[in-house]
Amino acid sequence: MHTTPDTRPAVVLLHSSLSSRSQWNTLIAEQEANFRFIAIDLLGYGKSAFPSEAAAAGYTLAHEADAVAAALASHLDAGETFHLVGHSYGGATALRLARQMRNRVLSLAVFEPVAFHLLPASDAGRQEIEAVVADINAAASAEDATRTFIDYWNRAGAFDSLPDMQRHRFTSGIAKVKLDFIALLGEPARAADMAQLDVPALVMAGAKGPASTRRVAETLAAALPQAQFALTAGGHMAPVTHAAAVNEVLLGFLENQRLLA
Q1: Domain holding 73: CATH number?
Q2: Could you tell me if residue 43 is inside a domain?
Q3: Three-state SS at 135
Q4: Does residue 151 have a pLDDT over 90?
């Protein structure tokens, strides 16, 4: 039986910590006629298994990127190229994956990637996030740790304002968040290593985002050879809270890549 080849550009979507591939549902529903979206659940989130005990003992972004690469094997042909999009932890994972699969990545778009490893130890943004991580690790309970995490990325009191069910769901995921931070702060790549990602790139940040991720976004935009920087409405979670504004910028970038192909 003859089947018509799918000519839509493949776009891989990686979500933030404590989220899942469903984060991208609106984008996918609105644009699936133009793009073949592949949304992946990162390890420990959505329907993806928690990292194995062996991996968790020394968790790295390589573990995360390898898992994404394995998942992509069931969606893409061997050697097939794709556009790569990531938000927050998904953005940092996208940077690692793009370096591992450089010959297959057509373009890169990230929103406030939490790639704190790009910042030197003396950077105020890195020191800010390291203080947050220390508070999370020192918290008396999983709920207190989750409150610190959620409030940092949103606003003071954000966690306590959530419905009970959502607070419980977020709290149940804080163990993976701690692994995420181990991977992020332990990643050996530095800003100079981003020069190898010589592909069209879009680096986005929210106008109300925290200093730590703004510093990462600015550093990354300067380090990537073909990067453009865009500031959007909202804060760090703007791809969720201000999806229309973020998606407009993202789709403009992806559409331009499609026209240039």
Answers
A1: 3.40.50.1820
A2: yes
A3: helix
A4: yes
Please report, as a single letter, which amino acid is at residue 157.
G
- Asked if 206 and 233 count as a contact pair (C-beta separation under 8 A), the reply is yes
**Number of domains present in the structure of the chain:** 1
Measured distance CA(13)–CA(78) in Å, rounded: 19
Residue (of 92, 67, 88, 68) closest to 12 by Cα position: 68
| Three-class secondary structure of residue 228 per DSSP | strand
Question: What confidence tier does 54 reach under pLDDT thresholds 50, 70, 90?
Answer: low
User: Is residue 19, in this structure, part of any structural domain at all?
Assistant: yes
**Within a domain: residue 36?**
yes
Q: Between the CA of residue 78 and those of 70, 72, 74, 101, what are the distances in Å?
A: 11, 10, 10, 12
Sheet holding 201-206, edge to edge: 36-40, 10-14, 82-87, 105-111, 201-206, 227-232
CA gap 225, 164 in Å, rounded: 45
pLDDT attached to residue 53: 76
Residues in contact with 195: Cβ distance below 8 Å, sequence separation at least 6, in sequence order: 223, 224, 225
Rounded-to-integer distance, Cα 153 and Cα 257, Å: 31
pLDDT of residue 56: 72
Per-residue model confidence as pLDDT tens digits over 227-243: 999 999 999 999 999 99
